[in-house]
Amino acid sequence: MKLEVKENYLYMNNTPFFWLGDTAWLLFEKLNLHEAKLYLDNRKNLGFNVIQCVLLHTYKDGFSCAGKSPLQKGYWEEVQKVVEYAKHLGLVMGILPAWGAMVKNDILNEQNIDSYAEFLNRIFKPFDNIVWILGGDIRGDEYFPLYDHFGKKLKELDSTRLITFHPFGRTGSYQWFKDCSWIDFHMFQSGHRRYDQVKLNAWDDKLNQEDVFGEDNYKYVIKNKSIIPVKPCLDGEPSYEGILQGLHDNTQPYWQDYDVRRYAYWSVLEGACGFTYGNNAIMQFYRTGEEGSYGVREDWLEALDMPGGKQMQYLKDVMLSIDFTKGAACPEIVINQKSHYEHISVFKSKDFILCYDYLGKEFSLNLNEYKKTKLTGFWMNPENGKRYDFGKIEGKDKITVKPQRREASNDWLLLLVAE
Q: Is the distance from CB of 311 to CB of 383 less than 8 angstroms?
C-alpha cells in the first residue's frame, strides 16, 4: 500500500489515489477493538479510504480525559490491531502522533520528541498503511522548531512514509512548512465558521487575519498552488456535518450534508488531491448520556448513517472515472462568474469538464476551445450519485444550462465528457 507523491497528486502503487478521509480523532481512545472494526467496516463500505485519528489527544498528568490512556496495559497492542485490521480492509490510517494540546502543555517537547519518534517507528514498522499527520489544530509558527525536528526525525527513521500537518482553523500548513523537505503534501483547515463569523471573540479566533476566506475553502487551494514548491493539498478539516456553525453558540444552526458537499466539491474541483469529511458525533465518538462537545446530538452509532457521510463516495467515484491528474481548475470559463454561494467550480482537461453548481442556478460556459470536440453531457445529483442525460454538444462556443429543481437542496454536478 505504498503511497507517494507525483507532481500535484497522490499515488498508490503507481495508480492515482484520491484521498477520501473520514475524521475519527478519538478512535483509539474511546472504541474497543470490536467497535473499531464495526466503524472501519462501515467507512470502507461507504468508499472512504483514509481514516484520520490521534494517538495522544487530551491528557492530564499523562492520563486520558476522554477514555483509554496510553499508559494502560494493552493500549498500544490494541492500536496495532486496529491498524492491522484497517490494512486488511485496504484503508490508510492518517495518524496524528499527538494533538497540538500535548505540545502546548509541554507533555511532548524537545526532551522526549526523539524517543517518541523512535517508539512510533518501532511499533508501526510492520504497517505500510500509515501517513503521519503532525500538528493537530495548532499553528505551526508557534512551535516551528519542535515540529520541524519531529518531521525530520520521522522521515529519517522511515523515508517511505508520507508526512503532512493538520493546522489551526482557517490556516494551512504551507504557511510555515513550505520549505521543509519532510512535508510531502499540505493540509489546510477551512474550519466551521460562516462568512459572517470571522471574529467571534472565542478561543479559536486567529492570532492575525491573514488569508481569511470564510466558507470559500477553494481559495486555500488557490493559495497553496501559489506557494513554491507546489505540493498536493487538501481540506483536512472543513465544517463537520452535525456541528454548530461557529462551534460555540448553541443558538446557531447546524452544518448539514449539503454544506459538507459544497466544501468537498469546491476544493476538489479547484485541484485538491482529495477531501476529508467530518461528523461531529463520530470525530469524538460521542455516546448518548456523555458530556459532548460543540452541541453534539447523535450517538456515534446513529451518526454512521447520516447522509453526508454516505454521499462522499459519489465525488470519489466521479474523480476516479476521469483522469483527474490531467485536470486543472478553470472557473474563468464561466461567463459572468459570481461569488459566495453562487460560485461555479470548474475542473477540466481536453477530455472533460466538471462544473459544480451549489444553488442549481442557471449559468453559461465559454466552450470556444471545445468547439471541435464532441461532448456528451450528464447531470449528477450529489445526494445519490444518480446521473441524468444532458445530451450532446458539438460546434458550440457557448452554452447556457440550468439543472432541474430538487426539494431541500439543489446542488448539481455537470459532467461533459469528450467522445
A: yes
Q: What is each CA distance from 12 to 18, 19, 47, 337, 405, in whole angstroms?
A: 9, 10, 16, 36, 39
Q: Would you give the DSSP letter of residue 70?
A: T
pTM above 0.90, yes or no: yes
CA distances from 393 to 324, 353, 374, 399 (A): 22, 12, 6, 9
Residue range(s) of every CATH 3.20.20.80 domain in the chain: 3-324
d(CA 211, CA 220): 8
Q: Which residue has the cell 498528568?
A: 61
Query: At residue 317, what is the residue type?
Result: D
| Architecture label for domain 3-324 | Alpha-Beta Barrel (3.20)
Cβ burial, residue 299 (10 Å; 0-12/13-18/19+): middle
Q: Is the peptide bond before 126 cis (omega within 30 degrees of 0)?
A: no
d(CA 24, CA 277): 10
Nearest to 234 by CA among 312, 302, 324, 166: 166
The full length of the chain comes to 419
CB atoms within 10 A of CB 184: 20
| Residue 308 burial (CB count, 10 A) | 22
Could you give the residue range(s) of every CATH 2.60.40 domain in the chain? Answer: 327-418
- Please name the CATH architecture into which domain 327-418 falls: Sandwich (2.60)
pLDDT digits (tens, 9 = 90+) for 227-270: 999 999 999 999 999 999 999 999 999 999 999 999 999 999 99
Q: In what order do the strands lie in the sheet with 363-366?
A: 334-335, 363-366, 398-401
Query: How far, CA to CA in Å, does 219 sit from each of 21, 75, 211, 376?
Result: 20, 40, 9, 30
Ranges of H-type helices in 25-163: 27-30, 33-45, 75-89, 100-104, 113-123, 144-157
pLDDT by residue (tens digit) across 83-106? 999 999 999 999 999 999 999 999
